[in-house]
Amino acid sequence: MIKLALTGSIGMGKSATAAMFAARGVPVYDADAAVHAVYAPGGEAVAPIEAEFPGVTGNLGGIDRAKLRQRVIDDSAAMKRLEAIVHPIVGGLQRAFLEKAAADGHAIVVLDIPLLFETGGEKRADAILVVSAPPDVQKARVLARGQMTEAEFEAILARQVPDSVKRGRADFVIDTSRGFAHAEQRVDEILAELRARAAGGQDKTG
Q1: Nearest CA to 112 among 25, 4, 202, 35?
Q2: Each residue's pLDDT tens digit, 40-96
Q3: Which CATH number fits domain 1-27+107-206: 3.40.50.300, 3.30.465.10, 3.30.470.20, 3.90.226.10?
């Protein structure tokens, strides 16, 4: 089973690209969705995060991500403590996803992981797809969401591996600024290549 890691900096179009693979019947593991699940009321990460960062639980019993972001965004040590809590939990969800996909007989899966290089996740992938866009397009997309300030956006960018480095380490790149038709075509081309590779048994295990 070929594991294609899909990554890219904030605002580059990972979700839209992941949806294109899903529409073609490829199972997609969404790392962000997994984090949302463990942050939700009753989620596995809620209690240990609240213990480490008191006061970040919202009124409904889940983690208030805005409050949590304020606690860690400018504090690298705090971010490391948070990652030490969340990454093992989310890693278990990813392993369960891979086991199910393998049992269901899928030849290719997509692992949508925003912080792929930052967490060493590329070591567990057979191929890497980076979605990219020019900096002005990226910034406009993020700020248009209205979910963070420009300062918060810049702080997140500073923690992420630069886009140019990601592209240099990728097996495939999709420039999402060129529109959906271009992205759809690239997805089809990538899948054709990976299916040929899968037929030859060129994948990693574990």
Answers
A1: 4
A2: 999 999 999 999 999 999 999 999 998 999 999 888 899 999 999 998 999 899 999
A3: 3.40.50.300
